[in-house]
Each structure stands twice: as C-alpha cells, then as structure tokens.
Automatic annotation (TrEMBL):
Superkingdom of this protein's organism: Bacteria
Localization: Cell membrane; Endomembrane system; Membrane
Record domain NADH:quinone oxidoreductase/Mrp antiporter transmembrane: where: 124-395
Predominant place of localization: membrane
Taxon lineage: Bacteria, Pseudomonadati, Pseudomonadota, Betaproteobacteria, Nitrosomonadales
Annotated gene: dabB
The protein's name: Probable inorganic carbon transporter subunit DabB
C-alpha cells in the first residue's frame, strides 16, 4: 500500500486503536477523555493531510486503493474532514457534559468506533465494506443512544432504529447480490462504470430501487422517522453527532451512486415522492412544536427530505452543499442549545412581534429578484430557472419585515429588511460559487419533476403565512399535525408487534 493509501486509512486506525486503548485503560475517566480528545485531533489532522494528497494526486494513483475496495474523491475528502471535525468537537464537549456520569468508558469506546466506521463508509468501494461499516455505525451508535439506559423512550427509539437498520442492511445485501450478478464484481465503481457505459439492465434498475429503500430506512424519512425525534432522551452531544455526522450519510451515498440513478425513472420518482412528502410534513410539524431540541429534530427530518429531493432532481452539487451546511449548523445548534433557550426566553418576554401583511406577498418576489440577479452574474447558470423559484420560496421568510404596530422603530424595520436581503444574496452567491468548486459532482437536472417541487414549496410557504396571519383557522389541523398524523404511533405498534421487547432497569453491563 502506497503513502496516499496509508494516510487515507490512518484516521480509521487511530480511532480503532483509541477504542481498544480506552477499553483497557484503568484509572480516572479524565485520562480516557484526554486520550480520546488527542486521538480525535490527530485523526482530524491526518484526514486534512490525506485530503490534500487526494486533491493533488492524479486519479491513476488511486488504483491501489481501488484494488483494496476503497475509494477517494474530492467530495469524500471534504466530508471526511467535516465528520472528523464534528467528532473532535463532540468529544471535547462530551468530556465536560458527562463529567461525573457513570459508564463513560463505554461512551468513549462507542464514539471512537462510530467515527472509525463513518470514515470507512466514506471511502468504501466494495459492497461488503459499505454494508459492514454502515452496520457498525448503527451498532455503536445504539450504545450511545442508550447511555441513559433507564429511560424507556431512549430504549424505544434505539429499538425502532435497530429494526430500521436491520431492514436496511438486508435490502443493501440484496442490492449487493444483484450488483455482483450484474457486473461480476463487488466493486461499486465497476457497477457505476458498467451502467454509465451500457445503460441499465433489469437487475441494475432493481438495485437502484433497493438502494433508495435502504436510504429511506437509514435517513429517518417517513414513515420510519420517529426514532430520530425520540433520541432527544440521549445526551446532547450524541444528538449533535447523530444529526451532524451520521443521519446525513445517505445523502453522500446518493451522490456517490449518482451514475446509477441517472436513467432510473422508478428510483428517482420514489426518491422524489418520499423526500418531498417528508420535507413538507416535517416542516409543518416543526411549526407546532415548542421544545428547542424537538424542533431541531423535526428540522433535521425536513432537511433530510429536502436533500433527498435535491438528489432526485439531479442537483447533486446542491445536495453536497446542503449536506455540509446542515452538518455544521446542526452541530452548532445542538451544542449551543442552552443559548438558544435563553434567546427564546428573551424573545418571549419581549412579546411576539407581528409581521407586515404586505411582506408575505412581496418577500417571494424580492427573494426571486435577488436570486435571478446573482444568477445572471455567471456566464453559465449554475442551476435551472425553476430551481430559482424553489430557492425564492425557501428564503422568502428571511425577508419578512415587522409591521408598523410593532415596538420597533421604522429605521430598525428597514435595517431588518436590508439584513434579510443581504443574507439572501449571500446564500445565493455561496450556492452559485460552490458549483465552481471541483468536487467531482455532475448535475443532471430533471425538469420533468419541476412543477411538483415548485407547487410543494409554494404550498409550504403558504401554510407558514397562514400560521402567522390566521392561526385560529388552523386549530382543527393543529392537533393532527402536532401528533405527526400519528404515523410514528402506527410504526411503533408495527415494530413492537413484529419484534416484541420489554424493558426493565437496564444496565450498561448487560448491553
């Protein structure tokens, strides 16, 4: 194995050795955390260095990696740095957050193994490595989710996630078998090259659909989304790691398999339908919730649905940007949840400030104008025109301004509108500029889905306006939306009927 291969695999070895060392160490937990934090920092540095090597080496230098069932790319390097960075922050935060708690040894081991498995998943180019690493993420993440083993909802969420993970693993095994039969190899690159050169066969079409099903099960999309909401019973740093570096791995795999989905109408339609329904549904539920962490969890479900929609539309560069931005934001949001609670209390004391009715109508037009103006700066439009409408609806609430009856002075209201306009322009500029970074993503916009997506986003925007203007007329819907249409209750009953389980006073020793 050459130097590049060693550096690419080095972070995995570091975290594996850390898990072994921590499990064997005697003494205070502080020493274990010191080792974990130092190892996480070393893994991040190695990941950064290997990423630079990946960006500077010609593609033929990676033949050794390919022969070993591994794969590297600019996007993989960026995501790997992101995950290891989140891992380092979570490790340092956890060492303070869990101070004095029992079973910290098991937590550190599980955290190290999750980071090792995620890194292995990112560089996997063989179906068996992909399945084993993704399964390993689920196994060790379960130990972290059940850190407070006496909490029944934590155990219920973990059990529901385990069932979804097992189903996803079975589906992936079947997809791997079909791929192997189709191309005579377990190499994912061989499958993608074969599909790109010769088009789909019946087996590869089924493989694409099975991969979609596995993604739905692993990404907490409808109807198996409930466990992601209930893991709020886990420690806050676990939520940060889950939402920022684990649950969105499916987005990376969809981008990785983009060649497989290029001409698969069935797979793309299924992705779009589930992603769009999940996005709109979860966003509506989020509007009804009060708890900060629960709102963040529903926000993640909605964001994952939207990222799946981007992949179904062939906008893989946007999906990559979404994945990176979501990871950074959610890591910050969960780890600073206490500050958000304080800010919310200040806002509640100040009272609810009404928005001007005119802003609800003009904001989408102003947002669209800003998006189109920045899009016109580029010789080649970075995305199709209809996607600009989607962005306009998504960013329009940033441009709402306060009504004249609010406590704010006219100058402050205008400053708010100016700030919103600058933010919209900055978001658009970053999105357009990101398309010029050579990450290896190839967009294939599918305009046949444009009308459905624009209508869905328009409907979601309209509902958010109604919440602010005529909330009393939505009282009948409020109970149903708040309960998530009882979809999770139905899924929970199905899981417990298929795999009954009872919880007593569990201990970490018997897990």
């Amino acid at each position: 194995m050459d130097a590049v291969s060693l550096f690419v695999c080095a972070p995995i070895a570091v975290m594996l050795l850390t898990a072994i060392a921590v499990s064997l160490m005697r003494g205070a937990d502080a020493q274990r955390w010191k080792l974990c934090n130092e190892a996480s920092g070393l893994a991040l540095l190695l990941t950064l260095f290997s990423g630079l090597l990946v960006l500077t080496q010609p593609s033929q230098s990676f033949q050794v990696l390919s022969a070993a069932g591994l794969y590297v790319s600019p996007l993989q390097a960026v995501i790997a740095v992101l995950v290891q960075g989140v891992g380092l922050v979570v490790a340092r935060f956890s060492s303070r957050y869990l101070e004095g708690e029992p079973h910290q040894r098991q937590y550190i081991v599980a955290l190290s193994m999750v980071l090792a498995c995620v890194h292995l998943l990112l560089i996997a180019d063989h179906w068996l490595i992909l399945i084993l690493s993704w399964s390993g993420v689920g196994v060790f993440l379960k130990r972290m989710l059940c850190f407070y083993a006496e909490r029944p909802f934590a155990q219920l969420a973990s059990h529901k996630k385990t069932v979804a993970d097992i189903l996803a693993d079975d589906v992936l095994l079947l997809a791997a078998l079909l791929s192997w039969v189709s191309v005579g190899s377990g190499s994912m690159s061989a499958l993608l090259a074969n599909v790109s050169a010769h088009g789909h066969t019946q087996l590869t079409e089924i493989c694409a659909v099975l991969l979609v099903i596995a993604v739905v099960l692993r990404t907490a999309l409808l109807p198996v989304h409930g466990w992601l909401i209930q893991v709020m019973e886990a420690p806050t740093p676990v939520s940060a790691l889950l939402h920022a570096g684990v649950v969105n791995l499916s987005g990376y795999l969809l981008i990785r398999f983009s060649a497989l989905f290029a001409d698969s109408t069935i797979a793309n339609t299924l992705l779009l339908a589930i992603g769009l329904i999940t996005c709109v549904f979860a966003a509506l539920v989020m509007f009804t919730r009060i708890s900060i962490k629960v709102r963040l969890a529903w926000s993640t479900v909605a964001q994952m649905g939207f990222m799946i929609v981007e992949c179904a539309l062939g906008l893989y560069t946007f999906a990559a940007l979404h994945l990176i931005g979501h990871s950074i934001y959610k890591a910050y949001a969960f780890l600073s949840a206490a500050e958000i609670v304080a800010d919310t209390r200040v806002a509640q004391i100040a009272g609810r400030q009404a928005f001007a009715a005119l802003s609800f109508y003009l904001a989408p037009l102003l947002s669209l104008t800003i998006v189109l103006a920045i899009q016109a700066l580029f010789a080649t439009p970075p995305w199709p025109l209809w996607w600009s409408l989607v962005l306009a609806f998504a960013w329009a609430p940033v441009l709402w301004w306060r009504s004249s009856t609010s406590d704010l002075s006219p100058s402050l209201r205008w400053q708010g509108l100016l700030s919103g306009s600058l933010l919209t322009g900055l978001l658009t500029l970053v999105s357009a500029g990101f398309h010029h970074i050579p990450l290896g993503t190839i967009d294939q916009p599918r305009s046949e889905y444009a009308v459905a997506v624009v209508i869905a986003m328009g409907a979601l925007y309209l509902f958010s306006v109604l919440i602010h203007t005529v909330p009393q007329r939505l009282n009948r819907l409020h109970r149903w939306i708040y309960a998530g249409l009882y979809l999770d209750a139905f899924y929970t009953r199905c899981v417990l009927r298929l795999w009954p389980v009872s919880w007593g006073k569990s201990t970490h020793a018997n897990r």
